Amino acid sequence: QLQASGGGLVRPGGSLRLTCATSGVTPDHYATGWFRQAPGKEREFVAAINWNGSSAYYADSVKGRFTMSRDNAKNTIYLQMNTLKSEDTAVYYCAAGPSPRTEESSYNYWGQGTLVTVSS
C-alpha cells in the first residue's frame, strides 16, 4: 500500500504539499496519479505523471494551481497545491499503475488517503 501524507487544514488561497511514498510497493517504471473524493461525491482524477516525470496531466479544475512531481531516487511523489479553494476540500489518494491515465481502473496500487480541508 502506498503511504500518502501532508494533508491538513488550510485557509483559502493557501498552499499544501502532499507526499506519497511508493517504496517497495510499485514496479519500476510505473506511472502515478492523485485522485480526490469530496464529501458526498464520487472520487475524481486530479493529476498524473509518467514514470520518469517528463509528462504530467491535470484535471481542468486544478490546472495552473497544482503541480505533480516525483523523485524516483526517493520513491516519492508530490502534489504541490497552491491557491487552494474551498472546493478542493477532499480526501486525496495517491495511486500507481502502468500508465498515467485519468481512469481509476488504470491503477493497481492505492494509498490510504489524506484529508485536505480548505476553510477560513
Protein traits:
120 residues, mainly beta, 7-stranded mixed beta sheet, 4-stranded antiparallel beta sheet, 11 strands, 0% helix, 46% strand, globular
Structural class based on helices, strands and sheet pairing: mainly beta
What percent strand? Answer: over 45%
Order of H and E elements:
EEEEEEEEEEE
Uncertain spans, ≥5 residues at pLDDT below 50? none
Q: Let me know the largest β-sheet.
A: 7 strands, mixed
Extended strand count: 11
- What's the overall average pLDDT, rounded? 94
* Number of helical elements: 0
Structural Rg: 13 Å
Intertermini distance: 33 Å
Shape: globular
Indicate the percent of residues in helices.
under 10%
Tell me about this structure.
0% of the residues lie in helices and 46% in strands. The strands form two sheets. Strands 2, 4, 5, 6, 9, 10 and 11 form a seven-stranded mixed beta sheet that branches. Strands 1-3-8-7 form a four-stranded antiparallel beta sheet, with no helix packed on it. It is globular, with a radius of gyration of 13 Å. It is mainly beta and 120 residues long. The protein has strands spanning 3-5, 8-10, 16-21, 31-37, 44-49, 56-58, 66-71, 76-81, 90-97, 109-110, 114-118.
What's the short version?
0% of the residues lie in helices and 46% in strands. By secondary structure, the protein is mainly β. Strand 7 (66-71) and strand 8 (76-81) form a beta hairpin.
Protein topology:
Blueprint: E1 3-5, E2 8-10, E3 16-21, E4 31-37, E5 44-49, E6 56-58, E7 66-71, E8 76-81, E9 90-97, E10 109-110, E11 114-118
Parallel strand pairs: 2-11
Antiparallel strand pairs: 1-3, 3-8, 4-5, 4-9, 5-6, 7-8, 9-10, 9-11
